[in-house]
């Protein structure tokens, strides 16, 4: 299996050299589940896209400091590529910004959350649409770091997991697109550095609660296993 990482950001925060860029973070977490998964990185933030859809078995869009609704050439080109993947029923996974830009590309809507930043570990709960990936009532703890959210789903999309703070926690489009608002690639130490960098934007109360929440157990490996299953089916 070969997954194309559509990298949408560059980490430029002091103190994060040990964690690598987002593609390396994904390499590490997938390697903990299945070391045989291969990757190829495309710097879509620099307008580097695959020449052929079939270069990889599936594609994964990373997080980004950018917003999915911004009128920026590389984001517009990424949306066009997403639409092409969708037309060809190519397997596609979106994480955080990736989750949001897929929704926008396919006719949904993303907005700034009226409740502000969503940071720290939050629990999302599967509903009865999550057949094959979880049982209704099952829960996942994931690390979150976003202020934008999916407000309107694209046609044909179904929510499969949510929380009170994050009503669109995970959604599927038919059987070829999986989108997840929470992060599966972020290590706790990196998350804490990221929250500290954004502390003034997040607000001290949310910042403290987010850092405290990082003591909780998380389920990113379960999500990675589900992504691998999703790609293989």
From TrEMBL:
GO terms for cellular component: cytosol. It holds the Pfam family GATase. Residues 19-186 form the Glutamine amidotransferase domain. CDD domains: GATase1_1. SUPFAM superfamilies: Class I glutamine amidotransferase-like. Keywords: Glutamine amidotransferase, Transferase. One of its GO terms (molecular function) is transferase activity. This is Class I glutamine amidotransferase. It comes from SAR86 cluster bacterium SAR86E. The lineage of its organism: Bacteria, Pseudomonadati, Pseudomonadota, Gammaproteobacteria, SAR86 cluster.
């Amino acid at each position: 299996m070969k997954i194309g990482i559509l990298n949408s950001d560059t980490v430029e925060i002091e103190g994060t050299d040990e964690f690598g860029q987002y593609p390396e973070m994904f390499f590490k977490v997938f390697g903990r589940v299945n070391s045989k998964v291969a990757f190829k990185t495309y710097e879509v933030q620099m307008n580097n896209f695959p020449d052929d859809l079939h270069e990889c078995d599936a594609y994964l869009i990373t997080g980004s400091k950018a917003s999915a609704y911004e009128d920026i050439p590389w984001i517009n080109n990424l949306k066009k590529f997403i639409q092409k993947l969708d037309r060809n029923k190519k397997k596609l996974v979106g994480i955080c910004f990736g989750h949001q830009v897929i929704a926008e590309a396919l006719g949904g809507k993303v907005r700034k959350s009226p409740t502000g930043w969503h940071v720290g570990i939050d629990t999302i709960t599967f509903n009865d649409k999550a057949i094959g990936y979880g049982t209704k009532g099952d829960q996942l703890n994931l690390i979150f770091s976003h202020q934008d959210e999916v407000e309107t789903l694209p046609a044909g999309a179904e929510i499969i997991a949510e929380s009170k703070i994050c009503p669109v926690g995970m959604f599927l489009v038919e059987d070829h697109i999986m989108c997840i608002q929470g992060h599966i690639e972020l290590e706790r130490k990196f998350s804490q550095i990221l929250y500290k960098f954004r502390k003034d934007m997040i607000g001290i109360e949310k910042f403290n609660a987010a850092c405290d929440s990082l003591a909780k157990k998380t389920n990113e490996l379960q999500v990675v296993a589900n992504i691998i299953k999703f790609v293989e089916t």
